[in-house]
Write a structure and sequence with these properties.
Elements: E1 2-5, E2 13-14, H1 15-21, E3 30-32, H2 42-45, H3 50-58, H4 67-78, E4 89-92, E5 95-99, H5 109-127, E6 131-136, H6 142-149, E7 155-162, H7 168-175, E8 182-187, H8 191-203, H9 205-210, E9 213-214, H10 221-237, E10 244-249, H11 254-264, E11 269-276, H12 281-288, E12 290-292, H13 312-319, H14 324-337, E13 339-341, E14 352-356, H15 359-373, H16 379-391, E15 398-402, H17 410-416, H18 425-428, E16 438-440, H19 444-455
Parallel strand pairs: 5-15, 6-7, 6-9, 7-8, 8-16, 10-11, 10-15, 11-14
Antiparallel strand pairs: 1-2, 1-3, 4-5, 12-13
Bound molecules: pyridoxal-5'-phosphate.
Length: 457
């Protein structure tokens, strides 16, 4: 399989090149030249376990890693999960919940980042190269990125987080990792400061090249690809129904875009329910066809506190019948005017049902599911479950994706259910462990100096 950019400036890059490139160098996103139709293979794949299914679903998109090596990479990616099914499907009242949080950091990002770490280290070993990853986190994604590459030869990771502004659990999940290749930089500033630092370091192109600096953000194609798998998995777990609906708590549009790809591949997925919190830019778009930036709201589901969804451009590319020029024009219009309008909101547009969920509704949903079905969910999952129940068609199975374990978001869960025990042994075990973090001024030169110093050895 070859990849090209949604803006038309890049063509014919291989899978491995696409993974190493991350963001396309013309400012667009990488997409496969074709999306294979796997419908004829669906019966054959029934009964495969999660890693075996994952290898089959992803292989048509690879091409430049041989099948047995790739299969081995995939198996290794899911060995770190603590559930034999990797992603179990659990009935909760009238809906089913697909638990994507059984990885090492208890968040669905592990599904993609454990795999990305394996793919990176395979490519680097083959090329005898090293990669230095720089990231910024408000707390939610840093630990999954770290867990994906800790201890891997040829990779170092530097994660900036705002000192004192992540939750204590989130900080512990990062700073208790003591591997030599992991550097937690606690920045004396806000998350915005961390993101600005990230931009200024990456904008220093000579520095970026000299130090082989890379990112692991959610636009990496390998991350999307790994997420396509569990839509197929869900269908088999449901017993291969004629059709099914899935509700997806959405921030950067990575998770739900993977569902879009699965449907394009021929999976009998019916509706994609796009669930946002009060940051409802995407809900408004799929209501009206108008993509209009708003102010960021801070909610109880912080991993979805996003206004401009980084993977959305991939959907637009297909919506515009794979016309790179139309995609680029829409995005440029949006950048210039903070608003852009879809002229013809039909076709793929109709695959989505979108709505926004308030904090009150999400916390109410946590309380409801617990009181009626003894099921404890995290606030992101609750956003999706709320809409799963709202839009459920009695004749079609409805699945809500669970994106984090509730114990990761104990204060929101406690607001919904004050007296309820909410722990996880992986998190409890972190209390009292030794930690390591490096205090850092919010100064790009200080960050660059630190990176240079720790990359020369
Ligand atoms: C990242 C994340 C999301 C949002 O997923 P996107 O792919 O960005 O849409 C939802 N819930 C949790 C817990 C997350 O970490």
């Amino acid at each position: 399989m070859k990849y090209r950019s949604t803006r038309g400036g890049i063509e014919s890059v291989s899978f491995k090149e696409a993974v190493m490139m991350g963001l396309a160098s013309d400012g667009g996103l990488l997409v496969p030249e074709t999306i294979p139709n796997v419908q004829p293979k669906l019966d054959q794949w029934a009964g495969l376990d999660y890693p075996a299914l994952a290898a089959q679903v992803m292989l048509p998109f690879v091409g430049d890693i041989n099948e047995s090596v790739f299969t081995e990479l995939v198996h290794r990616s899911y060995q770190s999960f603590d559930h034999p099914q990797v992603a179990p499907l659990v009935p909760v009242g009238d809906i089913k919940v697909l638990e994507l949080f059984h990885g090492p950091t208890l968040a669905f990002k592990d599904i993609a980042l454990q795999f990305l770490g394996e793919v990176f280290s395979h490519i680097l070993a083959e090329r005898n190269e090293t990669l230095n990853i720089l990231g910024a986190t408000s707390g939610d994604t840093g630990s999954a990125a770290i867990a994906g590459v800790r201890g891997k030869p040829g990779i170092r990771i530097f994660v900036m987080f705002p000192e004192g502004r992540t939750s204590p659990i989130q900080e512990r999940q990062m700073t208790t990792v003591l591997d030599d290749n992991v550097f937690n930089l606690s920045i004396d500033g806000s998350f915005d400061d961390c993101q600005n630092l990230l931009k200024s370091v990456f904008n220093d192109l000579p520095f970026k090249q000299e130090l082989a600096l890379g990112a692991v953000n959610s636009v990496n194609w390998a991350r999307v690809l790994a997420q396509v798998v569990y839509y197929f998995w869900t269908w088999y777990q449901l017993g291969q129904p004629k059709r099914f609906d899935v509700s997806v708590p959405t921030g950067n549009f990575g998770n739900i875009f993977a569902g879009f790809v699965a449907k394009r591949m021929g999976l009998p997925l019916n509706r994609l329910v796009l669930a946002t919190n009060e940051n409802d830019i995407l809900a408004r778009f799929f209501d009206s066809g108008v993509y209009q930036r708003g102010a960021v709201h801070f909610t109880q589901s912080p991993a979805m506190d996003i206004q401009v969804a980084s993977n959305f451009e991939r959907y637009l590319f297909y919506q515009f019948s794979e016309d790179a020029k139309a995609t680029a024009e829409f995005m440029q219009g949006f950048q210039a005017n903070a608003e852009a309008k879809l002229k013809n909101p039909t076709g793929y547009f109709d695959w989505f049902v979108a709505d926004a969920v308030s904090d009150d509704e999400a916390l109410g949903s946590i309380a409801d599911m617990y009181q009626h079905y003894q099921y404890l969910s995290d606030p992101h999952t609750a956003v999706g479950c709320f809409l799963a129940n709202k839009y459920r068609d009695p004749d079609v199975p409805m699945v809500a994706l669970a994106t984090a374990h509730p114990a990761k978001f104990e204060s929101a869960v406690e607001q919904a259910l004050p007296e309820t025990a909410n722990t996880h042994p992986i998190l409890s075990a972190l209390t009292g462990l030794p930690t390591r973090k490096i205090p850092m001024l919010r100064d790009p030169e200080a960050v660059k100096g630190f990176i240079r110093q720790h990359c020369s050895s």
